[in-house]
Every structure is written in structure tokens, then in C-alpha cells.
Design a protein that fits this description.
The protein has helices spanning 3-19, 22-34, 44-53, 65-84, 99-120, 124-155, 160-163, 174-191, 210-213, 219-244, 251-275, 284-302. It is an all-alpha fold. The chain has one domain. It is globular and about 55 Å long.
């Protein structure tokens, strides 16, 4: 890898780390605009994370080192996914054959750490949220892996750089790309606890999934969790954009197109949360199974010569 290429990839990663908390702000501002309200500042997520980093954490006597290590390790896993994802440039800082599996596995590890931390509190309430998270993720992960496998089948490679380097929806693979992108967008909503799967703004005990698992976290630990959520939102949104976006061959233009695409994903998420109600918990598996079916169909089409 040349010095110029490394510099470009470092810029790509740096922009991801700095701009990731902007996406939740875009979502909330879109929802406020649709409802006719002014809404929170666009940079509210930055303010919240900075405030939490300045506070200390409070730990229950029933928790162990697992509860303390979960937030920071989960944030590290989200950061690792961004290191692997070539969302703007043609490659990433860590690119190798099989990094596609690592990318999906890091989000599984992040979820596993969150579930462990929730169970470590000994709270039946947080255990209920952890159970729901594990159940829905068991349906979302096959959709993610099959969607990536369908793109890998067309690219004849297990490297994300090769998989996402294709000509978008052109090049004779439009149906595969559109099906995979649709399935991965549903996974994006599910993995980030967005409507119609979950509502990040609710505090109704019987309906919370992600929020209920982090009720005992505070201070810097909660800051790690919120920042990791922003990174996850950016990474999975960037994956959908990288599948669909056109390529110009100029790294600066490609970076600008990718960033604009992520903002469009944030706007689309805000519109969905404004016009679509949250599904009943019994209906969520049906949505995730539909995403898995779309990914499976995309994989079948990708294998047709």
C-alpha cells in the first residue's frame, strides 16, 4: 500500500470517527421537521457524549468485571468494523480475503458483550431485553451474511473491497444488488434499534429492547455505548451506501458521494420513523425473516451463470 493510499484511508477512518454522531442528529431533525417542531440541535449527540465522558460511572455491588468491560470492548468492536469497511475509498486500512466475515462477526461480538453486561446485573428486566436482542439478532444475522454472500458470489471474492468495488446496480447484477441492499437496510434498522423494530426514544418498559439492556450503565460507560451506537449506525449505513453508490475513480468525489449517501440513509430513517409505526414484537420476526428471504433470493440469483 502506497503512502498516498494510506493517507486517504486514514482520512476515511478519521471522518468516520468524527462524523458518526452526526447521523442520529440528522434522523431526529428530520422527525422534528415532519412533526412541525424545531427539534434538538443537529450536534446533540456530540453534546451528550461529551457530557457523559466528563462524568464518573456508578457500579452495583452485584456486577463483575464483565459489566465494566462490556462498553469499552463493544466500542472497540464497532471501531474495528469501521477499520474493515471501505465505505468511501476503494479499500480500507485492514483489507484481506475473508474480512467480510470479520466485519459481520465484529457486530455479533459487540451484541454479545452488550447482552453479557445486561445479564451480569442480575436484573430480570434487563434479562428480558437481552433475550429479545438475542432472538432478533438470530434472525438478522443470517440476512446480513446471506446478503454479503450474494455480493461476494458475483465478485468471486470474500474481501469487502472487491465485493463493494462493483459498478453499483449496473454491470448486469442490478437485481442482486437491489435485493441485497433492501435486505441489508432492514438489518440496518434492526441492528440499530430503529423503528419499525425498536424505538430508541421510548422508555415504556414492556416494549424496550436495546435501551433496557443499558439502564444500569452511567457516566463514561454510557458514553462508550452511545458512541459505539453512532459508529454502528455509520458502518451499517455506509455498507448500504457502498453497495448502491456509483464510482467516479476520484477518491475525493467518491468520498463526497459516500458521505452524501450516508446522510440520505439518515434522512430515510427519519422519514420511516415519522410515517411508520413500530411493529408489535410478534411481527418483528416476520420482517427479519422477509429480509433473510430477500438475501437468499439475491444469493440464488448471484449463483446463476
Amino acid at each position: 500500500m502506497s503512502g498516498d493510499s494510506t493517507f486517504i484511508l486514514v482520512i476515511q477512518l478519521g471522518l468516520s470517527l468524527v462524523l458518526a454522531p452526526l447521523v442520529p442528529g440528522v434522523v431526529t431533525r428530520v422527525k422534528a421537521a415532519v412533526a412541525g417542531r424545531h427539534g434538538q440541535p443537529l450536534l446533540q449527540a456530540y453534546f451528550d457524549i461529551a457530557k457523559l465522558f466528563s462524568k464518573g460511572s456508578v457500579y452495583s455491588r452485584t456486577t463483575s468485571w464483565i459489566f465494566r468491560a462490556g462498553p469499552s470492548l463493544g466500542c472497540a468492536a464497532a471501531l474495528g468494523a469501521l477499520v474493515v469497511l471501505p465505505w468511501g475509498a476503494a479499500s480500507s486500512l485492514l483489507s484481506f480475503e475473508g474480512d467480510l466475515i470479520l466485519f459481520a462477526g465484529l457486530f455479533g461480538l459487540m451484541r454479545f458483550l452488550t447482552i453479557l453486561a445486561a445479564l451480569d446485573t442480575g436484573s430480570a428486566f434487563e434479562g428480558m431485553g437481552a433475550s429479545r436482542e438475542a432472538w432478533f439478532s438470530a434472525l438478522a444475522e443470517p440476512a446480513l451474511l446471506l446478503g454479503l454472500a450474494s455480493l461476494a458470489g458475483k465478485a468471486q471474492s470474500l474481501s469487502l473491497a472487491a465485493v463493494l468495488a462493483g459498478p453499483g446496480i449496473g454491470g448486469g447484477r442490478g437485481a442482486v444488488v437491489l435485493l441485497a441492499a433492501g435486505a441489508l437496510f432492514i438489518v440496518f434498522l434492526s441492528e440499530n434499534a430503529r423503528i419499525p423494530v425498536d424505538d430508541p426514544a421510548t422508555h415504556l418498559e414492556l416494549t424496550m429492547i436495546h435501551e433496557v439492556m443499558i439502564l444500569d450503565h452511567s457516566g463514561i460507560d454510557l458514553a462508550y455505548i452511545q458512541y459505539a451506537s453512532c459508529l454502528k449506525l455509520w458502518a451499517l449505513g455506509g455498507l448500504v451506501v457502498a453497495i448502491l453508490r456509483p464510482r467516479t475513480g476520484t477518491w475525493l468525489a467518491d468520498l463526497a458521494i459516500a458521505f452524501g449517501g450516508i446522510l440520505c440513509v439518515g434522512i430515510a430513517t427519519g422519514l420511516i420513523e415519522s410515517f411508520i409505526a413500530r411493529l408489535r414484537l410478534t411481527r418483528v420476526p416476520q420482517l427479519l425473516v422477509a429480509a433473510g428471504a430477500m438475501s437468499a433470493l439475491a444469493l440464488a440469483l448471484s449463483l446463476v451463470r
